[in-house]
Amino acid sequence: MLKHICCVVLLVAANFASFAQAPDGARKKMHASLPENCKLELDDGSILFKELEIDDGCVVNFGASVTSADVVVQKLILHGNSTIDLSPRNVSLPVPGKPGTPQQARNNPPTQRGQVGTRGGNGANGPSGTNLKLTVEALDATDGALWIRTDGSAGGAGGPGGDGAKGSAGPFTGTHCYDGGPGGDGGAGGTGGLGGNTAKVVVIVGAKSITANRTPGFAPSGRPADATIPGAVVAAGSPGAGGNSGGAGGNGGAGGEGRSCHFPATDARGGPGGHVGPSGSPGQPGTFIP
After folding, report:
1. Residue 181: strand pairing partners
2. Is residue 14 classed as helix, strand or coil in its secondary structure?
3. CB 222 within 8 A of CB 214
4. How far is it, in rounded angstroms, from Cα 252 to Cα 254?
5. How far is it, in rounded angstroms, from Cα 38 to Cα 30?
6. How far apart are CA 30 and CA 22, in angstroms?
7. Count of CB atoms within 10 A of residue 63's CB?
8. CA atoms of 21 and 24, how far apart (whole Å)
9. CA 208 – CA 199 distance, rounded (Å)
10. What is the average pLDDT score of the chain?
């Protein structure tokens, strides 16, 4: 249900005392005391902490399988600056591959232009933050503050456009020798992926509801100044930026071959190459969810 790491060393089980499941079986009861600079990963989305003590520099997050969490803390004790990090972690978005090149245009009169290259694939959308409902019944934070980081993740880059096809070779009809056809223009690059949205959070501390704020710019966001004030519980973050660049346009296809022709036809020239395709557009950013 949870993984507890401190300075890359697994802590002994004595740091946690497990309690029986709640009567409805839906929420597991836990007790945890987290030392300085620890990392706690929760693999269960429905937990009740009878008491949770978090020391300075600690970061609590959720496993990749948890997309929405509901956590109740009967007593939360804070020391220094700690974080519940809802942002996606270890994100590696694939970039679409380059499409194949169309076949050379057929050698039929009149001369044929090469086919335009295939448009590149769009980038992958960035993951959104993990949604969280956090209920804190009692808070002891005379020397501590908590930041609930709600960042989304950036979108992926668009894929490159495909190369244009080669123009047709100059056909010869016996009386007329055609020049080679122009190469096809390269395909447009793909559009960058959408940025991920911020996590949707509902945070209740005692009788007070905490509203999420947006940090400047796009993720990753830095710790807000008000999340360093003793006694503060702050939910804040930024959506992910769109894929920072669309894919490059494909190369233009080569012009078709010329040919040596017999009298009375004059020799045919090779065709001009196609143009490089346009780059794709950056993706749109994610949405801030208050």
Report:
1. none
2. helix
3. no
4. 7
5. 17
6. 10
7. 15
8. 8
9. 20
10. 86
Instruction: For residues 147 and 284, give the distance between their C-alpha atoms in angstroms, rounded to a whole number.
Output: 27
What pLDDT score was predicted for residue 169? Answer: 81
**Is 193 a residue whose pLDDT tops 80?**
yes
pLDDT > 70: what percent of the chain?
84
pLDDT value at residue 255: 73
* Whole-angstrom distance, CA of residue 40 vs CA of residue 53: 12
- Find tokens 């005692």 and name the residue: 206
Closest residue by Cα to residue 181 from 275, 276, 269: 269
Whether this prediction's pTM lies above 0.85 is answered by no
d(CA 165, CA 153): 37
Distance, in Å, from the CA atom of 217 to the CA atom of 4, rounded to the nearest integer, reads: 32
User: Which range, of 21-35, 49-63, 77-91, 107-121, averages the lowest pLDDT?
Assistant: 21-35
CA atoms within 13 Å, Cβ hemisphere of 173: 9
Nearest to 259 by CA among 179, 198, 203: 179
Listed in sequence order, the residues at least 6 apart from 155 whose beta carbon sits closer than 8 Å to its beta carbon are: 93, 123, 124, 125, 126, 192, 193, 194, 195, 196, 240, 241, 242, 243, 283, 284, 286
36-85 pLDDT, tens digit each: 999 999 998 899 999 999 999 999 999 999 999 999 999 999 999 999 99
Separation CA 232–CA 214 (nearest Å)? 16
Q: Which of 133-137, 162-166, 239-243, 252-256 has the lowest mean pLDDT?
A: 252-256
Which structure tokens are listed for 214?
């947006």
pLDDT of residue 26: 54
